[in-house]
Amino acid sequence: MKFENILVEKNDFKAVVTINRPSKLNALNKSTLSEINQAFAEIESDQNIKIVILTGSGEKAFVAGADISEFADFDVQEGQSLAAQGQQMVFDRIANFKKPVIAAINGFALGGGLELAMAAHFRIASDNAKMGLPETSLGVIPGYGGTQRLSQLIGKGRAMEMIMTAGMIDAKTAHSYGLVNHVTSPEELLDLANSLADKIAKNSIVAIGFAIEAINANDEDGINGFEKEIENFGKSFGTEDFKEGTSAFLEKRKANFPNR
Q1: Would you state the pLDDT for residue 193?
Q2: 44 Cβ partners below 8 Å, 6+ apart?
Q3: pTM higher than the cut 0.70
Q4: How far is residue 43 from each of residues 90, 94, 224, measured CA to CA in Å?
């Protein structure tokens, strides 16, 4: 499928999804969100793809925010619909994706851009990256899960400060907060993302999908994360990957997971 605002490159077992609106610092508009949704639907059904790397084109920005011109004149109902549709279509979809999603943050990740990165399963950043949720400076709040995921990742107090001040933090601070796992040079960012993907791919993607679901369950109202862990632990025993993994261990060889 050909896209106008994103690039999708598949290489062996990896898919690199690049937000590609460099003239707009890769800002998210309705069309871009729709294309991200379509790309992830395609990747989900592609049995050859195990891992997704999410990044932005150019050196200046991962995603510098949402395209404000699209919603500047919205009313209350339209604003709520915008947030609800965006969360369901893209942000929650990525957060609950059964295949690992790594966000490689190059440059600015602001507003909807940081929310997109936080929806990924974990994040790495270039040392020139800047992150923030500046929505309150526009008279609005984060609407794509930012108030929830930021506090889950860095704690309530720090999230409150970042959102209230509408300020930015650099990559070093983001790393100390636990917002990103690794910081490297811009030139080495995708190399690091690929290296991490290679390590992940040695393991059972089916088991990883179960783990993602169990980890996320802890953040959902009315769901007991421990019970979900027990359920998915049991489900693992019914997979071909479990049979291969345990057999390989007992036979002292490397596992060759069928990912079923």
Answers
A1: 97
A2: 97, 98, 99
A3: yes
A4: 13, 11, 29
